[in-house]
């Protein structure tokens, strides 16, 4: 039995967050989920579950009573910010509560009230419209870490980890046309160092094998299809190797993700968002977890988004969320033991 529960932020209220959270709670015994509580508005959660016909009792809690309450009801920590139940309809009025849920969850970890955080998906465009300054959770959590743990490293790195494949995008939420200009050897080296360190510390790998993807077709074909692989990626890989990190590349990315290739490495460093996320979500959309490396606390998330298109239909699959909860529970246990 863990000593502390996981804090789970409600995510975009118009999306499937409340539904998958309730479905995950129903699966708590079957999936052996660690105890968790939701940060949100209990009235909203109750309304959405009623609308979807999900028979899940909910209970208003503070984190300290979650371990005792979790078996009988879905525990909800009331943020004190009412949320209207409008499935599929985005509203700027909910942005503050969505952001407060993430921030409060992190504060609960910092204050020793929760063991780690799991985040339900946010609708990024809705938060941007309300003035949110960060591309996504990953960067926002990096900023919260900087404020709340001033003496710990806070170098957030996004990793998508499934049963057969883990990938890390070196550049993340930027337009494809900007990638060649933004990508630097320093970014690849920094990301490689963090991945190497964290795969050892948090995932127990003695010597993580990093496969570094090329950015151009055929990794540039000797410069004929772009010089970035020769000029940026190859020297970065050489630097990582000189530091004793088991990195290989640049490797042509079209042949990097088939089953036999996947057995030759532990994680792929990809040069841009879709190069990393298309293979991992294609192979295991329902089991892949988004985990943030490089933070002084545990954070995982399902790999999917808000799914507004099915928010009132009751058919959202909670599998990626249950995988995220299980991974966060394991990581928190390792951290607690350390
Ligand atoms: N961690 C996060 O906060 C996170 C992650 C990814 C995307 N997003 C955001 O989500 C929003 C929508 O993104 P999108 O449309 O590209 O991707 P999406 O994952 O929301 O939806 C893609 C498709 O998959 C389906 N789907 C997604 N999750 C499902 C589930 N659990 N069960 C059944 N079907 C599911 C959807 O109905 C849709 O057809 C965007 O604003 C994006 O930024 C947030
Ligand atoms: N790039 C991620 C994805 O598409 O799954 C996603 O947007 C999540 O980003 P944050 O965890 O930083 O919100």
UniProtKB/TrEMBL annotation:
Keyword Cytoplasm: yes
Molecular function, one GO term: magnesium ion binding
Gene Ontology cellular component annotations, sorted alphabetically: cytoplasm
Annotated residues for binding of a divalent metal cation: 173, 218, 273
Highest taxon, organism lineage: Bacteria
Cofactor list: Zn(2+); Mg(2+); Co(2+)
Statement: the UniProt record of this protein carries the keyword NADP: yes
EC number(s) stated in the UniProt entry for this protein: 1.1.1.262
Chain sites annotated for binding substrate: 137-138, 281, 290, 299
Cellular location(s): Cytoplasm
Keyword field: Cobalt, Cytoplasm, Magnesium, Metal-binding, NAD, NADP, Oxidoreductase, Pyridoxine biosynthesis, Zinc
Catalyzed chemical reaction(s): 4-(phosphooxy)-L-threonine + NAD(+) = 3-amino-2-oxopropyl phosphate + CO2 + NADH
Co-factor note (free text): Binds 1 divalent metal cation per subunit. Can use ions such as Zn(2+), Mg(2+) or Co(2+).
Subunit structure: Homodimer.
Note: The active site is located at the dimer interface.
Biological role: Catalyzes the NAD(P)-dependent oxidation of 4-(phosphooxy)-L-threonine (HTP) into 2-amino-3-oxo-4-(phosphooxy)butyric acid which spontaneously decarboxylates to form 3-amino-2-oxopropyl phosphate (AHAP).
Name under which the protein is recorded: 4-hydroxythreonine-4-phosphate dehydrogenase
Organism of provenance: Pleomorphomonas diazotrophica
Underlying gene: pdxA
């Amino acid at each position: 039995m863990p000593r502390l529960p996981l804090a789970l932020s409600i995510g975009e209220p118009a999306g499937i967050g409340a539904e998958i959270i309730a479905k995950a709670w129903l699966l708590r015994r079957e999936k052996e989920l660690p105890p968790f509580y939701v940060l949100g508005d209990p009235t909203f959660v109750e309304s959405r579950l009623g609308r979807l016909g999900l028979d899940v009792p909910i209970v208003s809690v503070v984190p300290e009573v979650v371990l005792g309450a979790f078996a009988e009801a879905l525990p909800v920590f009331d943020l004190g910010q009412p949320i209207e139940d409008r499935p599929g309809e985005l509203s700027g009025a909910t942005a503050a509560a969505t952001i407060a849920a993430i921030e409060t969850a992190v504060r609960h970890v910092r204050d020793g009230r929760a063991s780690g955080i799991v985040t339900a998906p946010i609708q990024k465009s809705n938060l941007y419209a309300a003035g949110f300054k960060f591309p996504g959770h990953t960067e926002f959590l990096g900023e919260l870490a900087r404020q709340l743990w001033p003496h710990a490293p806070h170098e957030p790195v996004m990793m998508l980890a499934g049963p057969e494949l883990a990938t890390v995008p070196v550049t993340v939420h930027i337009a494809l046309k900007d990638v060649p200009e933004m990508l630097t050897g320093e970014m690849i080296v920094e990301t490689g160092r963090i991945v190497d360190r964290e795969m050892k510390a948090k995932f127990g790998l003695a010597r993580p094998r990093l496969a570094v993807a090329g950015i151009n077709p055929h990794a540039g074909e000797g410069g004929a299809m772009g010089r970035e692989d020769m000029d940026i990626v190859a020297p970065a890989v050489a630097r990582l190797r000189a530091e004793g990190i088991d990195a290989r590349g640049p490797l042509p990315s079209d042949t990097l993700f088939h089953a036999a290739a996947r057995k030759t490495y532990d994680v792929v460093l990809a040069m841009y968002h879709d190069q990393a996320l298309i293979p991992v979500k294609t192979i295991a959309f329902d089991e892949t977890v988004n985990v943030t490396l490089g933070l002084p606390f545990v954070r995982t998330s399902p790999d999917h988004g808000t799914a507004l298109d099915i928010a009132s239909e009751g058919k959202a699959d909670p599998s990626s969320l249950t995988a995220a909860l299980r991974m966060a529970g394991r990581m928190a246990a390792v951290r607690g033991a350390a």
